[in-house]
Amino acid sequence: MTTNAKCLLALSFLIMAEISAQNPVPAADRIEAYIGTLKGKRIGVFANHTSILSNGRHLVDTLRALGLHVSVIFGPEHGFRGTADAGDKVGNYLDEATRIPVVSLYGSKRRPDADDLKDVDVMVFDIQDVGVRYYTYISSLEEYMESAFLHSRKLVLLDRPNPNGHYVDGPVLDRRFRSFVGMQPVPVVYGMTIGEYARMLVGEKWLAPDAQAAYERLSRSEGSPLMVIPCGNYQHASTYLLPVKPSPNLPDMASVYWYPSTCYFEGTVLSEGRGTSTPFQVFGHPALPNNLFAFTPISMPGAKEPKLKGQTCYGWDLRGTPEAVKRRTGEQICLEYLLEAYRLFPEKDKFFIIPKSGDTAAAFFNKLAGNAELMSHLKAGHTERQIRKSWEPGLKSFRALRKKYLIYP
Asked: Which CATH number, 3.40.50, 3.90.1150, 1.10.10, 3.30.2010, labels domain 253-381?
């Protein structure tokens, strides 16, 4: 290790000691816990703009400054730099800042193949999650894990605090509605860090059969190929304020806290606030009563073609300070606005976005919900209490299952 690298490592220890007294510490800051595993190896890093240490330096830059060899970067939805629109397919390219090749795992493929890994000895995952099932980074994690095990690579997962890790709520996904916005039978808000979730994937044998078999074979012969580096000073009740926005349409903590409750509007004809400065905090439609809050979606970075662009929408304004929003959402998903929007919408048969095939089971709303029951509840005029009661058996079972894989109190 060079003198500069030793100085950087010593400085990181001082930074971590200073911040750990009060705040949760992402595992990326705990360099001493993983540098030994990476030293002398060719490293593939699955990362984006959230993969930073508490000093603001990117993980990739930190590893290179420590004299480690990063041979390839893998990028998720929104790309390595986090600027692509939701759902936009991203191609491969050479990163201008580092001159390291970037392989997109949200374009033509969703997992590294043998050719991508030919110059990789160990794989690293470090991306900030927000603890919501339909936020696709846990789906990307699952695919990345399967690739690692199938190609006999060790996977070092640098855990990060979950800003919505203080509660568990929502319908548990029915596997018949499995998609990239929900791959496993967990509730919308699952109350686990991404490291705990990875432990659940292998512990419950939820990976694809060939990948699960590869994981178990490697575990018997070499020890577990999954190495989760824990956060420091984190508990599930901890408040963790994200240092950067995790994706273009979650610009602040208020959006992060409202996201589990208001993302359902993506499966309806209502604007979910993309094309405004506060997505998931404002939502509405031109057909709703014009005495409600008014806003107009426009084209902007991260939302070039937002739903209802240029049209005046009437609906709700839930903007507030992070503290106020967290108190408002509490420890459960808020359904009152979804129920009220459906009640007020004049043409109920046009409220949900239905595929051209007419198959309501394939509607995006049902993929977000993880079942067809929530849509049925809305159409039947059921109350929030009735809807929540239908979730209780699944949530009770999941909470018991979840306990087996928790790393943090």
From this structure: 3.90.1150
DSSP one-letter code for 299 = -
Listed by start position, the domains of the chain span 3-242, 253-381
Q: What is the largest CA-CA distance in the chain?
A: 69
Structure tokens at 378: 């809305």
What pTM, to 2 d.p., does this model score?
0.92
Cα-Cα-Cα-Cα dihedral sign, residues 276, 250, 301, 352:
negative
Name residues whose C-beta falls within 8 Å of residue 218's C-beta, 6 or more positions apart in sequence. Answer: 149, 152, 224, 225
Does the domain at 3-242 match CATH 3.40.50.12170? Answer given as yes
Residue with tokens 């919308």: 188
Looking at the DSSP assignment, which residues form a beta bridge with residue 227? 156
CB contact at 8 A, 283 and 319: no
The secondary element (H helix, E strand) that includes residue 294 is strand 293-295
**Nearest CA among 369, 372, 379 for reference residue 349:** 379
Strands 313-317 and 293-295: antiparallel
Summarised one tens digit per residue, pLDDT across range 382-396 is: 999 999 999 999 999
d(CA 177, CA 265): 18
Q: Which residue positions in the chain have pLDDT lower than 70?
A: 1-21, 81-89
User: What would the pLDDT profile of 234-274 be if each residue is shown by its tens digit?
Assistant: 999 999 999 999 999 999 999 999 999 999 999 999 999 99
d(CA 52, CA 54): 7
Cα–Cα dist 339/362, whole Å: 21
- CA dist., res. 190 & res. 398, Å (int): 8
Q: What single string gives the DSSP state of each residue in 101-130?
A: EEEESSSS-SS--TTTTTT-SEEEEE----
Q: In Å, how far are 192, 232, 406 from 25, measured between CA atoms?
A: 16, 5, 17
CA distance 41 to 121: 6
Q: Residue 346 has which token pair? A: 């004049």
Alpha carbons 168 and 171: distance in angstroms, whole number: 10
CA angle 134, 137, 143 (to 5 degrees): 110
Q: How many helices (H) and strands (E) does the chain have?
A: 12, 10
Distance CA 52, CA 339 (A): 39
